[in-house]
């Protein structure tokens, strides 16, 4: 039985090592993606886009996007709206909602990995501790009082598994919360852009059409 417990402990620590490497890889990849939406250039671009949309300046918006080739959620969204506007596509509001949903899926990509690791690595570490305690008690029963030193070392090693699980889980949970908050900020800004576009182009366009179709009545 002790051989199986030893193998189980080794597997637990290998799983912890793999989980930590995976978490670091996902963190770096997501950090690169989110940095495109959160820097001084993107914030300045977002303010300029909002102002141009508010003034219904489509040509100015296109020139601004051409001068800022950086691709992020905001530029993709505006490019999408401009293309649909050129096509005179009906149902622009619904299309913008769909585009925001697509951006959400893109920003959420790989975050479930962090969520899964953060929720489960403590339990994996606890499993390693349980295996270590089993090993310690087995040694105590086999060696008796003369094996107390061996037993204490086994328990110490067992507790390392729980410590490893927490060491992986805590940073992962913090990273997942960080990216989730940033995602909400990006989606909130996209919602604001959507409302600005709706107010400046869709609503005002309908108002202009209704005004032009109203006959002049002379008394």
- Let me know the number of strands: 0
Beta strand %: under 5%
Largest sheet geometry? none
Overall pLDDT level: 84
Spatial separation of the terminal alpha carbons: 104 Å
**H/E order of the elements?**
HHHHHHH
Structural class: mainly alpha
3D architecture notes:
This protein has 219 residues and is mainly α. The protein has helices at 2-35, 40-54, 58-67, 73-86, 92-108, 111-143, 148-213. It has one domain (2-203). The chain contains seven helices and no strands. It is rod-shaped, with a radius of gyration of 29 Å. It is a multi-pass membrane protein. The chain crosses the membrane at residues 12-33, 120-138, 158-179. It is found in: Cell membrane; Membrane. It comes from Leptospira levettii.
Keywords:
single chain; 219 residues; mainly alpha; 7 helices; 86% helix; disordered C terminus
Concise summary:
By secondary structure, the protein is mainly α.
How would the blueprint of this fold be written?
Blueprint: H1 2-35, H2 40-54, H3 58-67, H4 73-86, H5 92-108, H6 111-143, H7 148-213
Domain MotA/TolQ/ExbB proton channel: 81-191
Keywords: Cell membrane, Membrane, Protein transport, Transmembrane, Transmembrane helix, Transport
Pfam families: MotA_ExbB (PF01618)
